[in-house]
């Protein structure tokens, strides 16, 4: 969601909350808003202004409704691999996650991998949350992991990979063995 959409949504929610508060006050017995509303309907200039405000509210509501439906239908993201004469060739983000996981498993010392991918105009940005074995040099392993994942995605999917971020979330520790 863009910054403009967030600002419009915040403004829409604020105005809706104010109108709901006024409506609750009218229900509680405050008659001033009803008198002002009736007065505005009698004057043509105010009626036009009320119509424009109602139209803006309607258009904002429809924009947010259609935007939410579009997000629900979009489902999984995809990355375009090749635009050919016969059509587009694309790969889904879950398929790319499998490729990234496969490449990361080739690095010695990596125990668990949880990739997060973001495909944008500059290419595929990869964030890896990993758990590692304690017996490896972590900076060297992270650098090796970044390079292997980047090379593997470029070689297999043909996508640009501007960044591979690695976050080590834990060090794997085997349970202590009991000697009986």
From TrEMBL:
For this protein, the record's NCBIfam families field holds:
anchor_AmaP
Keywords linked to the UniProt accession: Membrane, Transmembrane, Transmembrane helix
- Native organism is Neomoorella thermoacetica (Clostridium thermoaceticum)
Q: Where are the transmembrane segments?
A: 7-28, 48-66
Highest taxon of source: Bacteria
What protein name does the entry list? Alkaline shock response membrane anchor protein AmaP
């Amino acid at each position: 969601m863009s910054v403009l959409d967030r600002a419009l949504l915040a403004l829409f929610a604020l105005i809706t909350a104010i109108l709901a508060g006024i409506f609750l006050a009218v229900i509680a017995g405050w008659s001033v808003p009803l008198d002002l509303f009736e007065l505005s309907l009698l004057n043509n200039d105010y009626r036009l202004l009320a119509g424009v405000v109602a139209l803006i509210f309607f258009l904002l509501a429809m924009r947010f409704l259609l935007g939410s439906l579009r997000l629900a239908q979009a489902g999984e993201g995809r990355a375009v691999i090749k635009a050919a004469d016969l059509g587009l060739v694309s790969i889904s983000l879950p398929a790319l996650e499998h490729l990234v996981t496969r490449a990361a498993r080739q690095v010695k010392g990596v125990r668990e991998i949880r990739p997060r991918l973001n495909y944008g105009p500059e290419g595929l940005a990869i964030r890896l949350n990993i758990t590692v074995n304690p017996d490896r040099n972590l900076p060297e392993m992270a650098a090796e992991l970044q390079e292997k994942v980047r090379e593997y995605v470029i070689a297999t999917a043909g996508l640009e990979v501007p960044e591979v971020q690695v976050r080590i979330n834990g060090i794997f520790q085997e349970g202590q063995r009991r000697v009986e």
